[in-house]
Design brief:
171 residues, 8 helices, rod-shaped
Length: 171
């Protein structure tokens, strides 16, 4: 313990703890996180806060025990930090066709992307009927004759294709 820190003076003990261990602790944490950005400072600060909350008197009474405790706490915080950052989803960068000016067009762009993905996910048979009826504007009997399937099958495939698209866009 420093000569100026009295047994009951937790502020002085904490200042001594920071002065003695902060630099080595920062080097230790920065090597573990492989960076020198804000997260290193945050992790060291959190370690010191936990030391202050626990018992600075006990940590300054025996320098080696206090140092081991601080480094163990810092190591656990680094592990938790790494797990948290790995658990976060990756940020998706929007494609050029999704970039819009305001919220109303943003929701429309998202709906368009969902619709285009839903069309791509349709089965070949559903996609074929959907294109013939809606895009080529052919009546069901003509589509049935072109594809060699019953008219009821054309209508059924069209119904399920539209339902699948609706669910994809609305969900």
């Amino acid at each position: 313990m420093s000569p100026t820190a009295q047994p009951g003076d937790s502020d002085a003990q904490m200042r001594h703890l920071v002065a003695t261990h902060c630099a080595p602790l920062t080097r230790f944490v920065s090597r573990m996180t492989l960076d020198v950005d804000q997260s290193t400072e945050d992790l060291v600060q959190e370690t010191m806060i936990r030391a202050w909350r626990s018992n600075p008197t006990a940590l300054t009474a025996n320098e080696q025990t206090g140092r081991r405790w601080l480094f163990t706490v810092a190591r656990h915080l680094v592990i938790d930090h790494c797990r948290r950052t790995r658990a976060l989803p990756l940020e998706a960068t929007p494609s050029a066709d999704c970039v819009t000016a305001d919220d109303s067009t943003a929701s429309e762009a998202l709906a368009n992307v969902a619709l285009s993905e839903a069309v791509q996910n349709l089965s070949r048979e559903h996609h074929e009927v959907l294109m013939e009826v809606l895009i080529e504007n052919r009546p069901a009997p003509e589509v049935a004759a072109r594809l060699g399937i019953p008219v009821g099958t054309v209508r059924s495939r069209l119904h399920y294709a539209i339902r699948s698209l609706r669910e994809a866009v609305l969900d």
